[in-house]
Write a structure and sequence with these properties.
By secondary structure, the chain is of the alpha+beta class. It is built from four helices and four strands; from the N terminus they run αββααββα. Helix 3 packs antiparallel against helix 4. The longest helix is centred in the middle third of the chain and has 23 residues. The radius of gyration is 20 Å and the shape is globular.
């Protein structure tokens, strides 16, 4: 719930203290707060299809809640916590922000020099959870915390 809380707090502060379209330099040109409302997905793709993202976010949330009982690995617990916080943060915007329920626009405000999109805290944690997913998968760590053992069918037997 930390990710969700930080996401919603930062969005509240941006909406309260900035006008849509306004830009505030945080660290020169490297980091700027640029307040926009995003009606689509990442990179403003699929504008006008917000309701699909609302349904997908709700499905991800239900999936995480159902599978949470199986998690015995700290890495997977962190991953699902980051994903749940990020997903519910953006889902909250889609459900309760203008223009209406299920089609609300997501508040984005973080602009990094050279990066082609403006994003928010929720987006950051969703992306970080996907990076952690790749790491855990490559390392063969399962939800129960055990490692997947590779088949030794191609291994040469050790001499006795």
């Amino acid at each position: 719930m930390v990710v969700y809380g930080v996401d919603q707090l930062t969005k509240f502060l941006i909406v309260k203290n900035m006008v849509e379209g306004e830009q505030v330099s945080v660290i020169g040109q490297v980091l700027t707060f640029h307040f926009v409302k995003n009606p689509g997905a990442a990179f403003s793709l699929a504008t006008g299809m917000t309701w699909i993202f609302s349904l997908a976010a709700a499905a991800v949330t239900v999936f995480i809640v159902i599978f949470a009982r199986r998690i015995r690995s700290l890495g997977w617990a962190v991953l699902f916590g980051m994903l749940l916080g990020g997903t519910t943060g953006n889902l909250t915007d889609r459900l309760f922000r203008e223009p209406g329920f299920g089609v609300g626009h997501v508040v984005d405000f973080i602009q990094v020099y050279g990066f082609p999109a403006i994003f928010n805290i929720a987006d950051s944690f969703i992306c970080a959870s996907m990076a952690l997913f790749i790491i855990l998968t490559i390392r063969g760590i399962r939800l129960d915390g055990r490692r997947t053992v590779k088949s030794s069918a191609t291994a040469t037997p050790e001499p006795k």
